[in-house]
User: Which sequence fits this backbone?
C-alpha cells in the first residue's frame, strides 16, 4: 500500500442551495480537486502527494477548504477561500513541503476543528495571519 508524504483533502461537500452554511461544492471545490490532481501529475509528484476529495471538513465559513496533512503525523494545516487560480501554487508548495501562508486559515478559526483527520491532535500554530 503506497503511503504518500502529503495529502490534500479537498472538501467537496454539497448542501441544498438554500442552506445558510453554503457548501464547498457549490463554490467550485470539485473542479479544484480535479485540477489539483492534474497539477500534481504534471509536476511528477503524484506518488509523493495525493489530492483526495473529502466530505465536509466543518470549515464552511472559510469557503472552499483544504486540509493539508502529512503521513508522519504532524499537525494539519487548513487552507480557506481557495480559488482555481490557487491550484498551481498549492500543488507546487505541497510538493516542496511548504505552506501557502496567504491561504492558511488561522488557528483561531481552525482550532474548534482540530480533531478532524486525527493528525497529531493539535491545530496549526497561529501565525497571526488574517483569514480572507
Assistant:
Amino acid at each position: 500500500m503506497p503511503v504518500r508524504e502529503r495529502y490534500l483533502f479537498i472538501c467537496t461537500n454539497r448542501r441544498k442551495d438554500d442552506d445558510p452554511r453554503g457548501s464547498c461544492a457549490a463554490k467550485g471545490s470539485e473542479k479544484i480537486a480535479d485540477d489539483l490532481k492534474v497539477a500534481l501529475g504534471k509536476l511528477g509528484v503524484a506518488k509523493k502527494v495525493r489530492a483526495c476529495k473529502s466530505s465536509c471538513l466543518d470549515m464552511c465559513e472559510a469557503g472552499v477548504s483544504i486540509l493539508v496533512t502529512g503521513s508522519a503525523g504532524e499537525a494539519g494545516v487548513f487552507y480557506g477561500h481557495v480559488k482555481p487560480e490557487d491550484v498551481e501554487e498549492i500543488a507546487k508548495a505541497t510538493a516542496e513541503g511548504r505552506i501557502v501562508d496567504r491561504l492558511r486559515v488561522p488557528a483561531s478559526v481552525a482550532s474548534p476543528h482540530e480533531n478532524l483527520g486525527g493528525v497529531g491532535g493539535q491545530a496549526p500554530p497561529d501565525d497571526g495571519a488574517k483569514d480572507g
Remarks:
- Strands lie at 6-11, 49-54, 66-70, 77-79.
- The chain is about 20% helix and 15% strand.
- The CA atoms of residues 34 and 111 lie 28 Å apart.
